[in-house]
Amino acid sequence: MTKLRKVSGGVCAARGFTAGAISAGIKYPEGTRDDMALIVADGLALAAATFTTNKVKAAPVLLSMANLRAKRTRAVILNSGNANACTGAPGLTNAAAMAAAAALALEVKPEEVLVCSTGRIGVPLPIEKMTAKVPALAGGINRKGSLAAAKAIMTSDTVPKECAVEFVSGGKTFRVGGLAKGAGMIDPNMATMLSVITTDAALTRAELRAALRLAVERSFNRITIDGDMSTNDTVILLASEAAGRPELADFQAALEAVALDLAKKIVLDGEGVSRFVEVEVRGAKTAKDAKRAAEAVANSTLTKCAWAGGDPNWGRILDAVGYSGAAFDPDCADIDYDRVPAVRGGMPAKTPFARLQAVAAKKAFKVTVDLHAGAASHVVFTTDLTEEYVRLNLGE
Amino acid sequence: MTKLRKVSGGVCAARGFTAGAISAGIKYPEGTRDDMALIVADGLALAAATFTTNKVKAAPVLLSMANLRAKRTRAVILNSGNANACTGAPGLTNAAAMAAAAALALEVKPEEVLVCSTGRIGVPLPIEKMTAKVPALAGGINRKGSLAAAKAIMTSDTVPKECAVEFVSGGKTFRVGGLAKGAGMIDPNMATMLSVITTDAALTRAELRAALRLAVERSFNRITIDGDMSTNDTVILLASEAAGRPELADFQAALEAVALDLAKKIVLDGEGVSRFVEVEVRGAKTAKDAKRAAEAVANSTLTKCAWAGGDPNWGRILDAVGYSGAAFDPDCADIDYDRVPAVRGGMPAKTPFARLQAVAAKKAFKVTVDLHAGAASHVVFTTDLTEEYVRLNLGE
Hints:
The structure is a homodimer. The first copy, chain A, is built from eleven helices and 16 strands. The first copy, chain A, has about 400 residues and is an alpha+beta fold. The interface between A and B is large, with 64 and 64 residues.
């Protein structure tokens, strides 16, 4: 395994990329915060992407899916404050207008631009205000623009999310870096979650696609905050080819490290989150069983409420595994909080309750469920469910 | 359709049944509240029952499943304060001891007694304290004991739940009545939910089983509060045969009315509930699609938070339908709050937002989603998700 070194620069860490941001007054008054971002490849880059599997797909998702058919991609234009979802035919026109405005300013083809939006659903984009700002946005992109772009796409996120790594492969040095936003409506199989990752590695399009699919499966698709899957989820990978060709396994490791780091940052910054919990189900009969059991625990409202109270409530965990559909004998199940036994053979372990409470009182801990039914395992990263989460989502 | 008349008496409304309750100090100090209940048929009754589908089944569920194989049933003994779940072999012994104590006091066979427990998971029953109280419990049963029994099985319920109806069929008068407890861990396919329903109708065991299965499918299996399915859910139907044989359809209607009334009472009394919401999905391609879409909406954390805030957030509803797996064209979907259009053809309807807000501000309202993809429909009864719910479930 190649050694990964963390570097700064986020989505601009890899050679061949610039980024920038601007305030267009989409949701908040103009000038109060940036709400548009642009990420640009110096030359034509190869792109791969994964999108929400929700049947209700926002206009920018539909447009980006179509534009990915272009041979090369030149830029990604993003906005916060408005998701451009459930906006019908005018929504598609507006998403195309965003791409066209960026293409005009960058002197590239409209189909070489991908579009991401996040924010309110069902409200038309203030498209004139937005396109009017694109020339200035395009004029301001630079090699240090990653943080500004990461900030501009925040919605209820409290911190911008960036990550970049460097690795050596076959004597050459490569970089993979990215930015992301998350916060609410986070669930495996994508979320209200946008991420753009860049690299200077040169790989074929099929290799990039396969690498991204696997990396997303092992990172963004393993996080869940509230079990709700959004209409706008997008992860885009752009490759500038500026550094030549690495070993595929080295690149995969670096891509997964960046994706997992960004995914964990999304969970940690989830709405009202007070605890970060890794749920591992092992000893499952099948991989599907391991996944459904881990996700049932991670999405159990009662279990998440218990965690919010620092209660190592293993009864609710066992209950969730029981209704998950996974095959197992409840009289054989074990549950640990970190490495402290909570359940052995389906019954309370002889651990003083205070020791379990000490684990559940921590900001971050791991729950391991061993079904003793086979050899499959699955890991999910999740959070507690707090009163603050509810308060933040009471709506208008 | 036969006419149903509401009557008093709950689980003792039908001829041939008595009930009572006593304080055994299971969770709270003895004398502070009743926590054991007994429901007894004057003679041997026919019984049918449905239980949790959770793989983790509490000891009383396993014992009652076994005892249902007896030809007839004479009594149901119930307790709150302790679920006798995840208690291993000693738990089964304790459940059998409850049945044996009741059998001894009533001079019947142990296998003619069914057992229900609700409360904490993973804590051994204080069985000596409990069995010591059974003679007094059995000595105190009477025709007016339903309310006391309904109160004794409450956990976080705030009100006891009873219902009874009378109907005339073929010139004879029949009654169906019952009691129930609910409060938390409520989800379709049974919940931390106990219900005993009695009738004086004489039907075959196969008829009773089929009638109960259908009634549960249309009532208790349509309610959801938090999406968590408990280890102890039980619905028992006892028939004394004292009133002779009704038309089967008349009996079915009465049984369903009682079950639906009890199910709705459980939802209305859910933990921290401030809103009762009926979710109907219609125009689905298949019955399965209608069900999965309705349940996705009813269990969507974000949708439930919006309702708690009185926000008629149709975007979250459409999002939930989108990830439910139901087949539909998002550009054709309609959503109504009561009869006020919120979405038409996948886009915001031209309804002033204040009109939708007025509906969502009510204590009870109906959300209708029309997928325009077929003719199947499904109804689920659910609630909002409040800060109080989280507070109540923070645990120890």
